[in-house]
Amino acid sequence: MSFFKKIFSSEKKETLDKGLEKSKTNFFDKLSKAVAGKSKVDDDVLDNLEEILVSSDVGVNTTLKIITRIEERVEKDKYLGTAELNKILREEIAGLLSETNSGEDTEFKIPENKKPYVIMVVGVNGAGKTTTIGKLAYQFKKQGLNVVLGAADTFRAAAIDQLQVWADRVDVPIVKQEMGSDPASVAFDALESGVSQNADVIIIDTAGRLHNKINLMNELTKVKRVMQKVVGDAPHDVLLVLDGSTGQNAFEQAKQFTAATEVTSLAVTKLDGTAKGGVVIGISDQFKIPVKYIGVGEGINDLQVFNKYEFVDSFFK
Ligand SMILES: Nc1nc2c(ncn2[C@@H]2O[C@H](COP(=O)(O)OP(=O)(O)OP(=O)(O)O)[C@@H](O)[C@H]2O)c(=O)[nH]1
User: Fold this and answer.
1) What is the pLDDT of residue 4?
2) Catalysed reaction per UniProt (predicted)?
């Protein structure tokens, strides 16, 4: 490993550790209370563990899966000490995450034969869409790629302005129109402009209104259809941004968006400052969609490519 890579990884690790601190403290405080005075994993411990996982926003279905797997191990081992519980949980959670996340990545590499690579970003207002797009643009630019942004969230003037702020900050071109114009038309322009500029990546912001599933579905379908007039297989990635600090509400949003369009990857934001980090485990398991990025701070560097090993290591350190 190069010296630079080592420094970068240790910085990434520090940010991740700091970002997950609240979730960890919450989880392990409860876990240590649950096993206090017990040497063996018994029904009581498992009941408590179930409650802790649910209250850590892992979600009921995923919690039951984890508990069943631990029960099976208890059954096999006969005597499973509480001291081993931490290690077992870590193994089971890593196993669950492996079902959806290949996740050894430290950086997302754009496939060679997909240029321009088009990312359509969806999610409700306030989930951290704009910030995530800005941070992503910065990461791609650091990789030496040409990035173009498309401000297709035309529903609110502030959304266009905010994306412009990020475009200026990262120093990448942005394609935008007036507030209220047709999002599909902005997406079309952005792709045309990207193709003519020989862009490597085009990131399209979309409106996050959820008041009506049919409207949302129609709008996203239209944006996709119109983009395909310029780049036949666009979008290559439909990235759903979820606010991790909303816990169960993030599950609800994932449900609504996956019903409205095909979502191919997830970004879970605001994991710093929340005790609900377990949401990453549950959402990835329930929706069988890989978590590609996690947001662990407001800074430009605080979006990390999700790596299941790093995540579990940081959580169970
Ligand atoms: N702490 C923290 N804050 C974040 C993170 N990601 C985004 N935010 C903050 O969340 C707030 C909302 O983010 P935006 O990017 O504006 O959200 P949006 O989804 O684009 O919402 P609209 O602009 O309202 O459409 C901002 O104050 C961001 O700085 C994160 O990973 N950690």
Assistant:
1) 43
2) GTP + H2O = GDP + phosphate + H(+)
Q: Considering the domain delimited by 117-307, tell me its CATH architecture.
A: 3-Layer(aba) Sandwich (3.40)
Please identify which residue in the block is written with the tokens 């038309």. 185
C-alpha 126 – ligand 1 centre gap (Å): 6
| Neighbouring residues of 89: CB distance < 8 A, sequence distance ≥ 6 | 49, 66, 70, 316
Superfamily of domain 3-100: SRP54, nucleotide-binding domain (1.20.120.140)
User: What proportions of the chain, in percent to the nearest 5, are helix, strand and coil?
Assistant: 55, 15, 30
Task: Name the residue of 298, 301, 303, 304 to mutate for ligand 1: max ligand atoms within 8 A of Cβ.
Answer: 298
Domain boundaries, the chain: 3-100, 117-307
| pTM tops 0.90, yes or no | yes
Which residues have C-beta atoms less than 6 Å from ligand 1?
123, 125-131, 159, 162, 208, 269-270, 272-273, 295-298, 302
Q: DSSP string covering 228-270, please?
A: TTTSTT--SEEEEEEEGGGTHHHHHHHHHHHHHS---EEEEE-
303: left (phi over 0), alpha (psi -120 to 50) or beta: beta
pLDDT tens digits for range 167-182: 999 999 999 999 989 9
- To the question of whether residue 125 is assigned a binding role by annotation, the answer is yes
Does 127 show up as a binding residue in the annotation? yes
Q: At what angle do helices 43-55 and 60-77 cross, to 10 degrees?
A: 160
pLDDT bucket at 2, cuts 50 / 70 / 90: very low
